[in-house]
Design brief:
This protein is about 30% helix and about 25% strand. It is of the alpha+beta class.
Length: about 270
């Protein structure tokens, strides 16, 4: 199929984007990389009246350390963030997870904020954002607000973003001392959608374990390390409402959470 007819506007500054979102609301879509949006348009799952191109909005293209976080603007491409010189030191979880996102061709076009806004439950960037307790910055003509990542993702392709709002930036917490960051995922092939993806921030006595590809959104749970870790992982696996699909059964996904989670936490 091909997309339904739409108008196209190449915005040159942020205020123009916000004006258009205020005017068109749910009839507008933001396009930057288009790696997810174009597929949605081609299947006519969305039929906007106008596409707003933000590629030429200079003040949306930034990567900055700010107040204990790494802030990434809406126009930053995934490959651009992955190549950032201090990424492995600033946010090591991202440095480990981002090579698993699609392939280098799609990372060259896809944006960081675009992946977050799309809210695919198997996507790596939303999972990292939730695991690190990150924030999503939403901006409209009415002002700006910050939403915690755990509250932003509300279901499959569903978020707390309002129709007149732009995901202007996302903020990943910087590396903390005495914490080890780890990431693993299982897919049919490298670059395919994850059947299960796990991200972990591991401390001496506890771990923040993020799980993607199992439920309808990425989730993060705090687990205590110790003799009961296997039981805790089993309980976690059963709590995630795993579903059967063409790629994996619910039982297989639960087993991956148990086994891969244990290996990830123990550093095996």
């Amino acid at each position: 199929m091909k997309p339904a007819a739409f108008d196209y506007v190449r915005a040159s500054h942020r205020e123009e984007v916000l004006d258009l979102l205020a005017e068109y609301g749910q009839d507008a879509r933001i396009i930057a990389g288009g790696q997810s949006l174009m597929a949605v348009l081609n299947m006519r799952l969305a039929q906007p009246k106008v596409l707003i191109d933000i590629n030429h909005v200079a003040d949306l293209n930034f990567i900055e350390r700010r107040n204990g976080c790494l802030a990434v603007g809406a126009a930053v491409r995934q490959a651009q963030l992955l190549a950032h010189p201090s990424l492995a030191d600033d946010v090591p979880l991202l440095a480990q997870a981002m090579p698993w996102i699609g392939h280098f061709q799609t990372r060259n076009r896809g944006t960081v904020c675009g992946s977050v806004a799309h809210a695919d439950p198997s996507a790596e960037l939303p999972l990292c954002l939730v695991t690190l307790g990150g924030e999503v910055i939403l901006q409209s003509k009415k002002g700006q607000r910050s939403v915690q990542a755990a509250d932003f993702f509300q279901g499959i392709l569903t978020t707390a973003k309002r129709p007149d709002e732009l995901v202007s930036e996302v903020r990943f917490a910087l590396k903390r001392d005495a914490i080890s960051y780890r990431f693993r995922e299982v897919a049919m092939r490298h670059g395919d959608f994850a059947m299960v993806a796990l991200a972990a921030a591991v401390g001496d006595d506890h771990v923040e374990l993020g799980i993607g590809g199992v439920g309808d959104r990425p989730q993060c749970r705090r687990l205590e390390r110790g003799a009961s870790l296997k039981d805790a992982l089993n309980e976690l696996a059963w709590s995630l409402d795993a579903q059967d699909d063409l790629h994996a059964s619910a039982a297989y996904r639960r087993q991956l959470v148990r086994e891969l989670g244990l290996r990830l936490i123990e550093g095996v």
